[in-house]
Amino acid sequence: MTTDFNILDMWKDLYNQSSKLYDEKITESFPSQGIGQILDMNLQFKKLMDETTEKYLELGNMPSRKDLANLSSQIVNVDAKVDSLEELLEDKLETLDNQVSFKSELTELKTEMKNLDKKLNQILSILKTKE
């Protein structure tokens, strides 16, 4: 299923046809219509070349410009998500550090309360003995 497809011959044919059309339209009284048709032909040729290139890249298993643009936007999205996850993790770690310091302060407070309770018990026992 091989077909001889020569881009250069196709371009030469297009050039010759567009030259003839241009020459014909210039001699008419409304050259703008001829120029419009030439532009249409050029746009059709560009569309054909774009489709051919896209198909060639697809068959060659190579990324097209569109594929690379999609991949690029996905990478940007992933990067943004990673950044937001980093911020969230930093906030959680900061909160965890605050919790650890709070727990240590609470433990110290409990120890001091126990010491105060012992001293109060000693004072109460001394007061009871003096009565």
UniProtKB/TrEMBL annotation:
Alphabetical keyword list: Coiled coil
Coiled coil: 68-126
The protein, known as: Polyhydroxyalkanoic acid synthase subunit PhaR
Organism encoding this protein: Neobacillus cucumis
